[in-house]
């Protein structure tokens, strides 16, 4: 992150590079990584001198891999008018290495390939290893990166020339996360490790810091005395689709609560960092995560709701239940929905509930953070009509999507005689103000890793804090009798118990 108002000159900072993507035939590479590389290239940000090696099990020629990636860019790029000259430039730089993650031979092939690339350029080219494979393969990949000496770069014995980018889920509980971390830190130094949580790189999530600390209005009331509750939602209309094999046994808690929801929570609740630099921002993010109160088994039963979608019909189309999705067990217990209530034990937030809610097959795709301020009962405006009283006023919302922006809902006087009040909204939208010039989060993360800025990457300490919380929940669930799944309809906002969770506190979900 820049420390002042001066934007970074990106072109000056990105040097020729090689990126080896493990799991190159998977969903993430097609949906996110290739479109991001294409967009960076189309915007003149990537140097001409780069090489991407796709590494996966499937047997493919370089050309087959290139056409696969070409299709992916056309299908998934946000750019509707693909520039085929640029796309060709990208695909010409792609190579494929078939191999099983646990066998050393294909890594040795990659070594040869990269050394030839270095020789050709007459320099040690920076190497990125992107772990986009199913996480069970991470231990084998890391082991073989070390054994083949790929992790050392072009043989100068210095880690300066290599970086590793690692996708979540980072382990499957506290214990496996610790083991992975141990292996990672035996292979790379902390400066070389980029743990990905793409919510940290969402423009609007970062903007929470600017909003809170660059404006003098809100920071003074950003605390338990003025805020009633915070609601963080990541709702998705889509189901698990083609990702059943990945999702089975992972579930929403590990897929998005442990990371994305916690990223949103951290930026919303953290204290002001000393500076806008990597150390200060990461330190404050971690500190607040460490202050989230651990839940007792009793609290987990009362304050954490899980769900799984059933089959149903939406707009005349049959929707499969989660248990009917491809590669999903027909008696699966994997949760596709979770709602939970948390507290942060520090002077700023003591006693203020933070409600998190996320699920697949929801009524709409919406990701947002809403901060609801306490209602002030002013003698001037007593006995408000019930619809005004119940309306969501005094709510500040950070919209991650759709329509990224910030809005403030408040009461205003309706024109005319008397003092009739109406709920109105002040709205800032990125698109209206800045056009659509913001980086997609994967573009941003790739760029940051290339310029060596770790600010928007997760830390081991942060993951430890969130894994402790999630592992407590998983342990209690593991001991409970089989959940009554499926328990919510596609196109709804989750199971009824999620409504009760907040209703029993005399509150309601702001998104409904
Ligand atoms: C991914 C999860 O990390 O985040 C997906 O694996 C989820 O299951 C996705 O759909 C949500 O991200 P976004 O940016 O589309 O809101």
UniProtKB/TrEMBL annotation:
<dbReference type="GO" id="GO:0006006">
    <property type="term" value="P:glucose metabolic process"/>
</dbReference>
<feature type="binding site">
    <location>
        <position position="57"/>
    </location>
    <ligand>
        <name>NADP(+)</name>
    </ligand>
</feature>
<dbReference type="GO" id="GO:0050661">
    <property type="term" value="F:NADP binding"/>
</dbReference>
<comment type="function">
    <text>Catalyzes the oxidation of glucose 6-phosphate to 6-phosphogluconolactone.</text>
</comment>
<keyword id="KW-0119">Carbohydrate metabolism</keyword>
<dbReference type="InterPro" id="IPR022675">
    <property type="entry name" value="G6P_DH_C"/>
</dbReference>
<dbReference type="InterPro" id="IPR001282">
    <property type="entry name" value="G6P_DH"/>
</dbReference>
<keyword id="KW-0313">Glucose metabolism</keyword>
<dbReference type="InterPro" id="IPR036291">
    <property type="entry name" value="NAD(P)-bd_dom_sf"/>
</dbReference>
<feature type="domain" description="Glucose-6-phosphate dehydrogenase NAD-binding">
    <location>
        <begin position="20"/>
        <end position="207"/>
    </location>
</feature>
<dbReference type="Pfam" id="PF02781">
    <property type="entry name" value="G6PD_C"/>
</dbReference>
<feature type="binding site">
    <location>
        <position position="255"/>
    </location>
    <ligand>
        <name>substrate</name>
    </ligand>
</feature>
<comment type="similarity">
    <text>Belongs to the glucose-6-phosphate dehydrogenase family.</text>
</comment>
<dbReference type="Pfam" id="PF00479">
    <property type="entry name" value="G6PD_N"/>
</dbReference>
<dbReference type="GO" id="GO:0005829">
    <property type="term" value="C:cytosol"/>
</dbReference>
<keyword id="KW-0521">NADP</keyword>
<feature type="binding site">
    <location>
        <position position="360"/>
    </location>
    <ligand>
        <name>substrate</name>
    </ligand>
</feature>
<feature type="active site" description="Proton acceptor">
    <location>
        <position position="260"/>
    </location>
</feature>
<feature type="binding site">
    <location>
        <position position="236"/>
    </location>
    <ligand>
        <name>substrate</name>
    </ligand>
</feature>
<dbReference type="InterPro" id="IPR022674">
    <property type="entry name" value="G6P_DH_NAD-bd"/>
</dbReference>
<feature type="binding site">
    <location>
        <position position="202"/>
    </location>
    <ligand>
        <name>substrate</name>
    </ligand>
</feature>
<protein>
    <recommendedName>
        <fullName>Glucose-6-phosphate 1-dehydrogenase</fullName>
        <ecNumber>1.1.1.49</ecNumber>
    </recommendedName>
</protein>
<dbReference type="GO" id="GO:0004345">
    <property type="term" value="F:glucose-6-phosphate dehydrogenase activity"/>
</dbReference>
<feature type="binding site">
    <location>
        <position position="198"/>
    </location>
    <ligand>
        <name>substrate</name>
    </ligand>
</feature>
<feature type="domain" description="Glucose-6-phosphate dehydrogenase C-terminal">
    <location>
        <begin position="209"/>
        <end position="509"/>
    </location>
</feature>
<comment type="pathway">
    <text>Carbohydrate degradation; pentose phosphate pathway; D-ribulose 5-phosphate from D-glucose 6-phosphate (oxidative stage): step 1/3.</text>
</comment>
<keyword id="KW-0560">Oxidoreductase</keyword>
<dbReference type="GO" id="GO:0009051">
    <property type="term" value="P:pentose-phosphate shunt, oxidative branch"/>
</dbReference>
<feature type="binding site">
    <location>
        <position position="168"/>
    </location>
    <ligand>
        <name>NADP(+)</name>
    </ligand>
</feature>
